[in-house]
Amino acid sequence: MPPKTQLDRLAIGMMVLFCTIWGVQQVAIKLANAGISPVWQAGLRSIGAALLVLAWAVGRRVRLFEADGSLPGGVLAGLLFAAEFALIFIGLQYTSASRGVIFLYTAPFFVALGAVWLLPHEHMRRTQWAGMALAFCGVLVLFGENLLGAAGEAWKGDLLIFCSAFFWAATTLTVKASALNRVSAEKTLLYQLVVSALILPPLALLMGEPGIFAPSPLVWASLAFQIVVVASASYLGWFWLVRQYPATRLSSFSFLTPVMGVLAGGVLLGEPLTPAVFAALGLVGSGIWIANRPPRRR
């Protein structure tokens, strides 16, 4: 399947589905935090997903070990992937989740800036920048009030999560600009899962995390959802999309994730759904439409 320059219905539908899954993941992480410490949770997720993706790839006879020049990019992507999640979980020890969302979802702007040098064929037009800015305004409408009145060491967490957004964008750009863009989505994902599975558990030990301290059926179910649905199925689909479609256009959809997370919290956890949630959804949806609207033919 040759790479495309615009998002079609398949890509749009997959991205809406994945953003919904990633939004629900926020609820699953909260539920699993009640019994498994955060970085341990991320490490266990990577270990479980690596085994599942490996079994899937072997069953489909995907070539994983041939010399295709992808090793340097794969190791780099794995290190960036591990750094992203480590910084998120460490940062959340200092700042609130709502503040963290604002800084994390600066990542699409880093992708767009990096694409100027690394992906010159994905030229960003003014309307695309405007659409991304409008979508980000939707995130600010949803969480912006939490930027005010920060106290203590919240700035440390904000800075760490802002850095994690850079690593998230760098992972996407590495996949798109390196030899990983020519290998299977299974191999691309396995690089990241295996490297993070080797890094995150030792990091959790160094941080003195308790690990699994209060297991329950709900905690295990939440972790299983992250392993099977999020880190295996949705990430496989995401990296397939990154190979086939412009990274800048795909990244604009990520602004949907925090809105979907709040909606999921309202449906699954009974959290309040204020008018700001639906205003944010409208702004994000409008921004994504503007950012992905095809250029007018002259």
TrEMBL record:
<dbReference type="GO" id="GO:0016020">
    <property type="term" value="C:membrane"/>
</dbReference>
<dbReference type="InterPro" id="IPR000620">
    <property type="entry name" value="EamA_dom"/>
</dbReference>
<feature type="transmembrane region" description="Helical">
    <location>
        <begin position="131"/>
        <end position="151"/>
    </location>
</feature>
<keyword id="KW-0472">Membrane</keyword>
<feature type="transmembrane region" description="Helical">
    <location>
        <begin position="219"/>
        <end position="241"/>
    </location>
</feature>
<keyword id="KW-1133">Transmembrane helix</keyword>
<feature type="domain" description="EamA">
    <location>
        <begin position="156"/>
        <end position="292"/>
    </location>
</feature>
<feature type="transmembrane region" description="Helical">
    <location>
        <begin position="100"/>
        <end position="119"/>
    </location>
</feature>
<comment type="similarity">
    <text>Belongs to the EamA transporter family.</text>
</comment>
<keyword id="KW-0812">Transmembrane</keyword>
<dbReference type="Pfam" id="PF00892">
    <property type="entry name" value="EamA"/>
</dbReference>
<dbReference type="InterPro" id="IPR037185">
    <property type="entry name" value="EmrE-like"/>
</dbReference>
<feature type="transmembrane region" description="Helical">
    <location>
        <begin position="157"/>
        <end position="177"/>
    </location>
</feature>
<feature type="transmembrane region" description="Helical">
    <location>
        <begin position="253"/>
        <end position="270"/>
    </location>
</feature>
<feature type="transmembrane region" description="Helical">
    <location>
        <begin position="276"/>
        <end position="292"/>
    </location>
</feature>
<protein>
    <submittedName>
        <fullName>EamA family transporter</fullName>
    </submittedName>
</protein>
<feature type="domain" description="EamA">
    <location>
        <begin position="11"/>
        <end position="143"/>
    </location>
</feature>
<feature type="transmembrane region" description="Helical">
    <location>
        <begin position="189"/>
        <end position="207"/>
    </location>
</feature>
<dbReference type="InterPro" id="IPR050638">
    <property type="entry name" value="AA-Vitamin_Transporters"/>
</dbReference>
<feature type="transmembrane region" description="Helical">
    <location>
        <begin position="71"/>
        <end position="94"/>
    </location>
</feature>
<feature type="transmembrane region" description="Helical">
    <location>
        <begin position="42"/>
        <end position="59"/>
    </location>
</feature>
